[in-house]
Amino acid sequence: MRSTALVTGASSGLGAEFAVRLAARGHDLVLVARSEDRLTALAERLAAKYGARAHVLPQDLAEPDAARRVADRLAARGLSVDLLVNNAGFGTCGRFEEIDADRDHDQLMVNVVALVGLTHALLPGMLERGTGAVVNVASTAAFQPAPYFAVYGAAKAFVLDFGLALRQEYRRRGIRVLTLCPGPVDTPFFDVIGTRDAAVNGSMTTPEPVVRAALRALDRDRGYVAPGLGNALSAHLLPRRPRTLVAALAERVTRKVLSPSATAARPKEYAA
Ligand SMILES: NC(=O)c1ccc[n+]([C@@H]2O[C@H](COP(=O)([O-])OP(=O)(O)OC[C@H]3O[C@@H](n4cnc5c(N)ncnc54)[C@H](OP(=O)(O)O)[C@@H]3O)[C@@H](O)[C@H]2O)c1
């Protein structure tokens, strides 16, 4: 029987790449995001190219009961999920007092609350079947405080610690849990956050090598992976330094997001 992978944020960027790579590996897919048209186009492509059954589940993950709604629709279709990829997410940047509070609230709902909720909803089924896996997408922002990305960085630190903790809880019970911590990847993420100056650390890569590295790490049951040598080095070294020093050093790098050109490039609704 083909196993089923559910990918959130499958309508673009890393999520779409996860869906393609997983279909190529023989998984059926459940595709979750708000953009139903893009999910449907992807589902048709996965069916035509890989013979994958791809179910489209449009859902705004910022809604308070988003995880339950997804779980209810999975149950109604008789679908069980063997691999959960909690990838959906977006960021905000700039001086904290200038960032729209509702936007930060939605960010936490999508990047944290929905991720935990979907894990709660789907992990018990994996335990019952004695096998399964969860991939949570964090960021290199998870490894240090991120001034001017304070909420985004803290949310991603949550995702990393949550994933590492679950991995220890479930590693002897047949469930693998991987946390993916990418550096800058060329996706619409930067259109949504409003500036390419948000790519503060490391050089930009494409989704393909990042997702390949994630699936390789999942196969090897690694706890986390930060693809790219520079990202891997900083992931290894930064948590070992005094935290206030790391925050001060990080601020020297992230302050570039405050440049006038970055502010001008920000979409109106997110601009200060
Ligand atoms: N790109 C980078 O440099 C980078 C680096 C490190 C980590 N990451 C992380 O990688 C993940 C994927 O980002 P990406 O780079 O692939 O960006 P992206 O192309 O903008 O994709 C974000 C995905 O999340 C979905 N999403 C956003 N808000 C949503 C909501 N309210 N409800 C449901 N789905 C929602 C979007 O779908 P809809 O708009 O259709 O809803 C989209 O499919 C994110 O968690 C991001 O934080 C990205």
Automatic annotation (TrEMBL):
GO terms for molecular function: oxidoreductase activity. Keywords: Oxidoreductase. One of its GO terms (cellular component) is membrane. This is SDR family oxidoreductase. It holds the Pfam family adh_short. InterPro entries: NAD(P)-bd_dom_sf, Sc_DH/Rdtase_CS, SDR_fam. Belongs to the short-chain dehydrogenases/reductases (SDR) family.
